[in-house]
Fold Uracil-DNA glycosylase.
Amino acid sequence: MSAQAAAAEVSPLEPTPVGRCQHCRLFAWQRERARDAGDAVTVANMNDQLRRHPHRRFSDWRAK
Ligand SMILES: [Zn+2]
C-alpha cells in the first residue's frame, strides 16, 4: 500500500465533531464504524451530517 492511498482514505478535510455536541459524536462514531465496514456511502453521509450540523456557542444563547 502506498502512502498516497493511505492519505486518501482519511482526508484531512473531513469534518470533525464539535466538542460537546452529542449529535456530532454520534455521527463521528457511525462514520468510523462505516469506515471499518468499508461503507463509503455512509462515511460520506456522516461527513455531510457533521458538516451541516448547526452549532451555536453556549454564550450566543445567553446573549439573547
Ligand atoms: Zn453537532
Q: What stands out?
A: Residues 17-55 form one domain. The mean pLDDT is 76. The radius of gyration is 15 Å.
